[in-house]
Amino acid sequence: MITVEHMSKSYGPFPAVIDVSFEVLKGEIVGFLGPNGAGKTTTMRVITGYTPPSVGKVTVGGYDIVTNSLDVRKQIGYLPESVPLYLDMSVTDYLTYMGSIRGMNKAEIKQRLPEVIDVVKLGEYRNTLVGRLSKGYRQRTGIAQAILHDPDVLILDEPTIGIDPIQVVETRELISELGKEHTMLISSHILPEVSAICPRVLVINDGRIVADDSPDNLSEKLQHTERIEISVNNAKPSEVVTLLRDIPDVIDARTDQRAQSLQKGEREGTTPFIVDAKPNLRLSEEIAKTIIEKGWGLSNLTHLPMTLEEIFLELTTDESREKIN
Fold first, then answer.
1. Which residues in 202-217 are b (16+ Cβ under 10 Å) and which e?
2. Where are the alpha helices (DSSP H) in 48-188?
3. Stretch 173-182: mean pLDDT, rounded?
4. Same domain for 155 and 277?
5. 271 φ/ψ angles, rounded to the nearest 5 degrees
6. pLDDT for residue 150
């Protein structure tokens, strides 16, 4: 659905994106990650036809973004980081206007408008001025204009930036629902959000794609140490930590400081721990044996993959790392 081939984009002498290539298949939901200034927004602007590439070729639905720009734009719904809203229009008037400039006739707008307002849950605000909406509902209005013409592809640039935690969850649920019917490319700094929504992630750093894979596969490729979560019953945490650190191949052991788990553990007489170790197929067996021989209870032993945050840091802070495919 989206094909980017050796695309570069420069602003004068300054390269923003360098020789980027990737493909997003029909129906895929792909997360686009990178530090500020890495080239995410520039890449999205090129794909949407907002700005042409300096070098390379980009197609959407088989149409070239330069030679068939209008055909490309008909297939794309775009939510930029700063949503272009007219604050003195009502939600209904704004969406009607956006439909008209996309070439929808009055009958199409009349049929589609209530469907879209229902999808983004703006029903009670349909006649409210956009300028009076909260940030979260302005984002919903921005998403509504992006899906109004029922595009095949949605490009969402930081769709939950600046909204409160409750609205983040609601917007995430909305995006997940939209992903059932659209091909999607989503950039976000909220990594758990990307992990929850996107089966595949692209990581861009200094204008180049440095990874393209599922979070699980990236975790497996990049994980240099083994991380194990265990829960021990009826034991002093300091004694458990000392014992675990004495096991061969264990690099470090510590109580899990996540407040919710720790509080629950204290109520049940159970304390959770995190163990970092060198890869060892029999390490779990050794840990279990050591704890049981000490007379403590072992209620959990789980191998943990790298989090998306750890993957992101690994890929974007080591400049010498080669591209991972």
1. bbbbbbbbbbbbebee
2. 69-75, 91-101, 106-119, 135-147, 165-178
3. 86
4. no
5. -120, 130
6. 92
* Closest to 77 (Cα-Cα) out of 56, 94, 55, 60: 60
Q: Are residues 6 and 22 located together in one domain of the fold?
A: yes
The mean pLDDT value of the chain amounts to: 87
d(CA 224, CA 182): 36
CATH number of the domain that residue 204 is part of: 3.40.50.300
- Closest to 194 measured CA to CA, from 22, 40, 17, 1: 40
- Residue 247, domain extent: 224-304
| CB contact at 8 A, 324 and 218 | yes
Give per-residue pLDDT as tens, 112-163: 999 999 999 999 999 999 999 998 899 999 999 999 999 999 999 988 877 7
pLDDT band at 196 (very low <50, low <70, confident <90, very high): confident
Instruction: Please indicate, yes or no, if residue 188 is contained in any of the structural domains.
Output: yes
Amino acid at 71: D
> Given CA atoms 127, 130, 136, 139 in this order, what sign does their dihedral have?
positive
Number of other residues whose CB lies within 10 A of the CB of residue 138: 19
Q: Is the pLDDT of residue 65 over 60?
A: yes
Closest to 154 in 3D by CA, of 259, 24, 55: 24
The pTM assigned to this predicted structure is 0.75
Confidence of residue 244 (pLDDT cuts 50, 70, 90): very high
